[in-house]
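Q: How do we represent a protein-ligand complex in a form that can be generated token by token?
A: Start from the inputs.
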Amino acid sequence: AKQMGKNNSQYYTTQLSEEQMLLFELETSLYDAIAHNQLYLNYQPQLNLDTNKIESAEALVRWKHPTLGVISPGKFIPLAEETGLIISIGEWVLKTACIQAKKWIESGYGLKTIAVNISVKQFRQENFVEIVKNILESVNLEPKYLELEVTESILMQDRGKTALIINELSELGVKFSLDDFGTGYSSLSYLKKFPFHTIKIDQSFIRDLTVNQQDRALIDAVITLGKGYNMQVVAEGVETEAQLRLLEKFNCDIIQGRWLSMPISDVEFTQFIINFALD
Ligand code: C2E
Ligand code: CA
Ligand code: CA
Ligand code: CA
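Then emit the structure tokens for the protein with calcium ion bound:
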């Protein structure tokens, strides 16, 4: 057993340094990703269960690395946060998503919002409000079409500053959505203090919805709570018909997930929203 333990730890050490080398390589090439047009967005449709229409999409960034292929945001967003590159990547994402949304809205497909993920560091940058305003102006997109997704971690520190930023943008008409709800250190009092338009129930709660009575009770309660605060409730990661049925029963407003569609390219999304309206 001792022998095995030793081998295991050696194996582990080798793995770790390979991983570190990969991280280093990623970090170096991430600097060039924007300039070399390696970033692109996918869009995941959201279905409004009341109207049975696709009224929103969440923009999700992807990185097509020249040798490593497509890298998921779960791998490079943390790196971008560490290196500060998230500032320029975030701005690129926001602008690209707004330009795309403008096209869909003008085409009359019935899109009402584009949701964009905002990381903590991006939100905390000095002139975040100005950056958002400038992008909306340059793209000529009305603020009401933009929904910024933030996580509970944004509410943890410097709550006064956070409130100022959220309030200033909300007054313009920009919407805010509380992402991954239930996974952080959420205190229900946050919902009262910040003008969130939407809460997104994390997919980990949706996953076991049909088998776990506790998750079911929690989702039922969160949906009721959201309604009480006049917020829209989105269920993320809806994969099965059975999950959908339960969410309908609980009066969930919007669903997003594999059952409807995984994130797709802009071209595929255009086709998707057209086809959906026809069906
Ligand atoms: P998120 O904001 O919670 O996004 C939802 C993630 O769940 C996406 O992963 C999406 O592809 C995945 N997903 C959607 N439906 C299903 C489903 O039915 N089943 C399963 N198993 N997964 C589903 P993705 O695109 O890999 O993004 C991961 C995370 O990376 C996002 O989590 C978000 O936190 C971050 N991220 C993505 N794009 C951006 C961005 O542009 N900026 C920032 N700051 N973060 C981003
Ligand atoms: Ca999100
Ligand atoms: Ca989420
Ligand atoms: Ca409803």
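The pocket of C2E (ligand 1) is lined by residues 44, 60-61, 72-74, 77, 90, 93, 117-119, 179-180, 203, 236-237, 239, 257-258, 262-263 (CB under 6 Å). The longest strand covers residues 53-65.
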